[in-house]
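Standup notes
- DV: blocked on the single-chain target, sequence here:
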Amino acid sequence: QVQLVESGGGSVQAGGSLRLSCRASGKSYSSYCMAWFRQAPGKEREGVAAIDSDGSTTYADSVKGRFTISRDNVKKTLYLQMNSLKPEDTAMYYCADDGAISGSGGCYTEAFEYDSWGQGTQVTVSS
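- DV (later): unblocked, structure below
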């Protein structure tokens, strides 16, 4: 059973930065696809960024140029560096893992592709 534990959330003012981490445990390998999603109150969950095991990335248009997704396959840890934060970035952020040993074609932020999810870490950006 894969377990994902996020950390690094908090409250910042607009223009500030935060770095989220997500550590995976319960498996011996680092999955092909990992991703960050977020959900704000009253809104649907949306994909933020995804990364494959080779480091190829995909971003939502709303975060391009501000957020950077990365991973450490040895530590089985996923990161999200968030800069120039805006109030509209306020949400619960979740990491997700597709559980695949290998893959091809890149990774995307379609929720159905991921079978393990963390409990989330809250990010609040004030104006």
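- Follow-up: The chain has a mean pLDDT of 95.
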